[in-house]
Amino acid sequence: MFHDHALTFARTALLALVACGAAPLACAEAPPSAVPGPPLSPPLSAEVFADRVTGRTFYYNSGGQPYGAEQYLPDHRVVWAFTGDDCKRGRWYDKAGYICFAYEGDPGEQCWTFHDGPQGLTAYFMGDQTTEPLIASQSSPGPMACMGPDVGV
């Protein structure tokens, strides 16, 4: 346990030094969220998001690894699947500047901010840019391949 915390601290310190460049002391007292990261656009509005995603399937990575895919259908309908998992149907909507998703069979909602980033469309859960983002590694105009009960969606 201590070893994991020490590695996390060492990685955070190294990232802070790299991010702060020639002035590491200027960032020494800064909280992690204040350390400069890759440049992002402001959060996309619901209208811009709809224009960008409707009629496409996006394939998301997290930490450089495949995470899942989402097909964005007309009328804010979606089909989501974690990599290697069954598809879930749902809807997305604007809620106080977040893009939120509700899926059949899940009682809660998932709210994100979406940004244009250096690697493409980038999503942060609840807008928290101190967490690992989802990054759209590719998109396609075709439907996603579903496993399980919704095969052929």
Q: What does this protein look like?
A:
By secondary structure, the chain is α+β, with helices and mostly antiparallel strands. Helices cover 20% and strands 37% of the residues. The chain contains 3 helices and 8 strands; from the N terminus they run H-H-H-E-E-E-E-E-E-E-E. Strands 1-2-3-4-5-6-7-8 form an 8-stranded antiparallel barrel. Strand 6 and strand 7 form a beta hairpin. The chain is globular.
Number of extended strands: 8
- Shape designation: globular
Largest sheet: 8 strands, antiparallel, barrel
Number of helices: 3
Structural class: alpha+beta
Q: Walk across the major sheet and give the strand order.
A: 1-2-3-4-5-6-7-8
SSE arrangement, N to C: HHHEEEEEEEE
Rg, Cα atoms, Å: 18 Å
How far apart the termini lie comes to 43 Å
Low-confidence stretches: 1-36
What is the share of helical residues? Answer: 10-25%
Mean pLDDT: 79
Strand content: 35-45%
Question: In summary, what is this structure?
Answer:
The chain is of the alpha+beta class. It has helices spanning 2-20, 24-27, 46-53, and strands spanning 56-62, 65-72, 77-82, 88-95, 98-103, 110-117, 120-125, 134-140. The N and C termini lie far apart (43 Å).
